[in-house]
Design brief:
With about 210 residues, the protein is an alpha/beta fold. It has one domain: Class I glutamine amidotransferase (GATase) domain (Rossmann fold), CATH 3.40.50. About 25% of the residues lie in helices and about 30% in strands. It has a seven-stranded mixed sheet, with helices on both faces. Helix 1 crosses helix 5 and helix 1 packs across helix 6. Bound molecules: glutamine (GLN). In the presence of PdxS, forms a dodecamer of heterodimers. Only shows activity in the heterodimer. Catalyzes the hydrolysis of glutamine to glutamate and ammonia as part of the biosynthesis of pyridoxal 5'-phosphate. The resulting ammonia molecule is channeled to the active site of PdxS. Pathway: Cofactor biosynthesis; pyridoxal 5'-phosphate biosynthesis. Its EC number is 4.3.3.6, 3.5.1.2. Keywords: Glutamine amidotransferase, Hydrolase, Lyase, Pyridoxal phosphate.
């Protein structure tokens, strides 16, 4: 299986490592590839769009001709995990002219919603589909403002959606790739039902891989 990580900017290697570990947990051998130009996404089964700066990422995916390929990937029903800036880039509207969003996720976004007083913080968040809270790492994080009917909210923080799912897209305002916990990558890419899984992520990954 081939997984592409949009590598314009941001925490690319962390996503690649998390995807490989998530694959291992499901007995799937995943090859990861960094994407900086067009022509690679069509060969990918899975796609991650990392955090970083959504202005830069959105500009580059358009300039490099990657944007229509991401659209085709989603329209083909292939999984995408988008984190933080990735969430902003996929949204319908980031309410900021500097971000040319792809309008693949029926949601509007508040960029930097948590404001300067709390640019970054960690907090455990409950996520639909996970038994135990997920260690949320929020870095100048956005929140989801309005969502369309087809969007499921998987997690909220202070009453605001911070993880959503629509079709093949799972998008988070926080950064699962910056933790050792690969449950979000497993949910996004391997359609795992981890809701009844009470083990710690590490133990859990080891056990499943050993089966
Ligand atoms: N950690 C992040 O990805 C921050 C995203 C940033 N707030 C933006 O608008 O692009």
């Amino acid at each position: 299986m081939k997984a592409g990580v949009i590598a314009v900017q941001g925490d690319v290697s962390e996503h690649a490592a998390a995807i490989r570990r998530a694959g291992e947990a499901h007995g799937v051998d995943v090859e990861t590839v960094s994407i900086r130009r067009s022509g690679i996404v069509p060969d990918c089964d899975l796609l991650a769009i990392p955090g970083g700066e959504s202005t830069t990422i959105s500009r580059q995916v358009h300039d490099e001709g990657i944007a229509p390929e991401i659209r085709a990937h989603v329209e083909a029903g292939k999984p995408v995990l988008a984190t933080c800036a990735g969430l902003i880039v996929l949204s319908r509207d980031a309410k900021d002219d500097r971000v040319s969003t792809l309008d693949l996720l029926d949601a509007t976004i508040d960029r930097n919603a948590f404001g300067r007083q709390a640019d970054s913080f960690r907090a455990p968040v409950d996520v639909v589909g996970l038994e135990d809270p997920f260690p949320g790492v929020f870095i100048r994080a956005p929140t989801v403002d309005e969502v369309g009917d087809g969007v499921e909210t998987l997690s909220t923080w202070e009453s605001r959606p911070v993880a959503v799912r629509e079709g093949p897209i799972l998008a988070t305002a926080f950064h699962p790739e910056l933790t050792d916990d690969v449950r979000i990558h497993r949910l996004a890419f391997f359609d795992a039902d981890l809701a009844t899984d009470a083990d710690s992520p590490e133990d859990d990954a080891g056990e499943v891989a050993a089966e």
